[in-house]
Structure formats: C-alpha cells, structure tokens
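Supplementary material to the annual report.
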Amino acid sequence: MAVPRETAAAARRRDLAGPVPAGAWRTEVPVRFSHCDPAGIVYFARYFDMLNGVVEDWFSEALGIDYHDMIGRRRTGLGFASAGAEFLSPGFMGDRLTCAVTVERIGRSSLTFRIHASRGDEPVFAARLVMVTTSLDTHRSIPLPDDLRAALERYWESCK
Amino acid sequence: MAVPRETAAAARRRDLAGPVPAGAWRTEVPVRFSHCDPAGIVYFARYFDMLNGVVEDWFSEALGIDYHDMIGRRRTGLGFASAGAEFLSPGFMGDRLTCAVTVERIGRSSLTFRIHASRGDEPVFAARLVMVTTSLDTHRSIPLPDDLRAALERYWESCK
Amino acid sequence: MAVPRETAAAARRRDLAGPVPAGAWRTEVPVRFSHCDPAGIVYFARYFDMLNGVVEDWFSEALGIDYHDMIGRRRTGLGFASAGAEFLSPGFMGDRLTCAVTVERIGRSSLTFRIHASRGDEPVFAARLVMVTTSLDTHRSIPLPDDLRAALERYWESCK
Amino acid sequence: MAVPRETAAAARRRDLAGPVPAGAWRTEVPVRFSHCDPAGIVYFARYFDMLNGVVEDWFSEALGIDYHDMIGRRRTGLGFASAGAEFLSPGFMGDRLTCAVTVERIGRSSLTFRIHASRGDEPVFAARLVMVTTSLDTHRSIPLPDDLRAALERYWESCK
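Predicted assembly:
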C-alpha cells in the first residue's frame, strides 16, 4: 500500500470516529466494575464482549429478529469472521456509553457493520465487525436467512 | 482504496495467516469449556482475553520484562490503541492452540505486533495489536521505557 | 453438625429458594449469548459476574450510594469474603431473570445479603454474599462507612 | 442452628483453610492481569472461572477422563448445583496459586469436592462445589457415568 503507515492509521481513526447517521439505532451500556482492570479502565477484551450484547439488542429491537432463536432453534451461527476496534479514549467505571450500529455492507453470507461508542460527544471506541451466518451443524457459511437480509435492508434504508 | 473490497479482504486473510518466522516465541494455550459458547466454538471476545495472557507470558519469557511489575509498581499502562483479529477456523473445546508473537513495528510510545494461533498446521486466528505505553496517573501515552524498547529490539533481531 | 447432610442440603435449597419480601428491590437481567456455555445454559461463573452488576445497580438505585465513587475516589473496597450460590434450574439464552436483594445481616465491617433470581415464578438461583469494606491501600477491613450503614438500615426497614 | 453465627463462620473458614491430603492432585494457576479488578486484586467471579479450568485439568490429569469429550461427544453435562468460596486473602497479579482438589462425597448423580488455593503456605481461597451429571438433551440429572465413578473412587483412595 502506497499510503504511509502513520497517515493510514490516522485516517482510519478519523474515519472510525466519524459521524454516525442520525437514523442509526443506539443503546446505552453501563461500564461495570468488572469491565475494568487494575489500570482502572475498561479491559479491551470486555469491550468485545459488550459489543456482542449490543448486537443481540440491535437484532431484537432494531431488526425485529430473535438472536437467541436464530442460534438456538434455527441452528444458525452468528459468529464473526473478523473483529477489530480502535480505542480512542479510555472508558471508566460508571461511564454510560452510547453505542450506535451502522451497516457497512450486506454480503451473500456475511454482514459488515460498525459500532461507535461514545461518552456524551466524546468517541470512546469504534469497532468494525464481519459477521458470517453459518450452519451450526457443519460450521460452514450459509446464505443470510431471508428474514435477516430483509431486516438488514430495511435498517440500511432507515439509516440514510 | 483502489483494490476491490473482496480482494483486499482475501489478501488480508492470506497475509495474516502467513508464515511466522522460525525464531518467533511460541506458547501453547488450551481451549477451555468456558471459552466456548452455545455454538460450541470459542466465543470471539474470549480470544482477545486469551491474547492478553499470551502477551503477559511473552513479556516474561521472551522479553524478560515483568508485565505485572510494569503495571503495578511502575504504573505504566500496557493497554491497546487498536486490536483486531481474523478468525480463520473455529476453535473447539480441548484444542491446544499454538500462539506465536511477531513484532511488526516499534514506535516511540507504541508497539505493533501480531499473534498467530494455529492448531497443528491449521491457522485458527491471526490478530494485530497496537499496544501503547501510558502513565496510569494521567492515562496519556509515554515513551516506551528503555528496558522494554531494548528487549523488543533484541526480540526483533532474534526473529529475523 | 447433627443434621444429616442430605437433609441440611435440602433445607438450604428450600431456604434459598424461599419467598422474598415484597419490599425488596428488584432488577431484571437479560441472559446473553456470552453468558452461556457449550451445554447451552448459563455458565456458573457468569452468574457471579452478573451478581456484581446487580449489586452495583442496587447500590445506586436502592441505597443511593455511588458504587464506583466508593471504590474509585473513596478508595473503599467492596469485595467479597464469601460467595456462594445454589443453582436451582438452568438459565437459557434470552431469559430475563428477576433478581431481588435481601439484606441478612449488617455487621461492623461486613454485610451479608442474598440475591434470588427467578424466571417468572420459577427460582433459577439463589446466592448468599458476604461483602467486606476494606481500605484499598492496605486491603484490610474497615468499618462500614456511615452513609452506607445508614442506607443499609433504611433498606432493611423498607423490606420488612 | 444453635451455633452462634460468628463462631460458625470462623469454624467454616478454619475448616476450609485446613490441611489438604498429601496425595491430592495439585496444579498451578497464574493470576493474570485480566483476572484483576480496579481494586488491583482478583475479581471474585474470575476465581470461579479459574476453578472450572482446574476441574478440566483434574479430570484429564488425575482422573484420566476427557472432560471435553464428556460434554461434547457424550452429551453429559458437568455443571454445578452449588458453588461457594471463602476468600481468605486477596490474590494479586503475578501470583501463582497452587490449587488442590479434594473429593468430599461421591453421590449417585453428584460429586461434592473442594478446591484449596494457596500462595506458598498462605491460603488464598477455598471453594466447595457440587457437580451434577446431567443429560444435555433434557438437562435432568443422570447417574455418574461408570468410568467417572470408578476414577473418582480411585482418586478418593489415593488421597487417603
């Protein structure tokens, strides 16, 4: 890649911290004692765990899809092929983080989306996740179920 | 970026799954029952937690730096500015993952490195982490401590 | 103890699953995907983590005490000398558990309390916790701070 | 119960911290950064998670039973009906805890055992766990599988 490394990193951070569409679904997540480490700030692995809870609520509240039924009864995995986050500012016990979900790409058997977390106006972290729908019997990817695809397309439209 | 999205993703995965230098430090991590989710495979947030344990042991065993003393007595944070992983193959209970650490860049107050995890010859996941040294009093970045920098440079040489 | 072991265990379970005072503070906790294990039910260690979140909210909502300020600014530890739970029925993804807090004993530097969790009318687990207030500088017990003691006594009265 | 409360508690703590048979299986567990909380000591829920890892290794190393195969292929749950611990001394980052397993009672479909954790000669915590074997299809208790029962009886003898 021709772009100098530092510039690319700065661009990525700016990009990730960028504005979230007004129509994006948002939820508020409390930072717990147990999320924090001996440095007194949120332990990075806990952010990823927090993100999965955000995804569960996004499914039920914004997409109208029952996340637990998808995995349980429908045996459709909703795991990640890729997960990354930029940590822009430390999170502290007692913070209440606003997390907003933005869909970036709806693929054949995958979904790329971002979650931006902020404390008031201040960005705290920004994550990009690639979720892949799989059969829980074979652990191979399967096409996005029709109801999930339709819900994602509606959500995409509503965020414009 | 001019590269088509799919091709870039494929390239990133190939890159991340690529060969690890023979001189890289390695450790073996068991996949526990508690690492796994109702889908029967390792829950992605647990991989990130697992990675921090790998980093702790890499510090003490390969770098000769006491990770806990750095954070505790020396009040120097070793948190992440960025963390990402590509999950290439599911991990199962009872797996023993070989994790290898490769330094990518030693900055002024940051360290970029990769951890490759494999089960035998099969890549399971590949992570890229940017660690930043901070003052635990101000939560601002500080230059890499001299002993850590020297150890990283020695490690870098030994991996060539 | 003269009581036969099995009878004592049965009594303990009956006791722990028993009625909760109408005045007890309650909160609802969702069972997340990440709380569950490959057996498809909540992993026991996650229940204990869940309990700490319940305690944090009980402090702020029922006692009017800022849990995070107590630990952070006031440097008063709120750790446990003892923690135990009886798991009466498995918890599943998507459950919403009602958790109720009952104070059992207010000591000089400790607090014994119970948390009962149920799904509708069905008891799911019952925990007994002994919290000890400590100095975070010495890790030795200190008397319950006056505001915490007063709040606990008010809560105790309100539960009668 | 006729025993005064405080005395009973003191007795329980003394009992739990008591001597472990010389023949008991032991393993060493490192206290990780991620095990610790903003108070700088091990977060109690993490101890319970640590205990499950000890149980897994005890199964494979001392009992000769494949824990993961039991849950995975054999669909036999090894969950807990009861779990409790007394925390006798705080655990710190970098500690290496010696954990010893003592069987207390082998029931029809349950196993009661203790895990004592110490740092050198100093007791850190003592846990009592009641594991119940269940069918993972019905989540109902089933008799201890014959190979597990035989292994537990051999272990019991070897600890005398």
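The longest helix of chain C spans residues 44-63.
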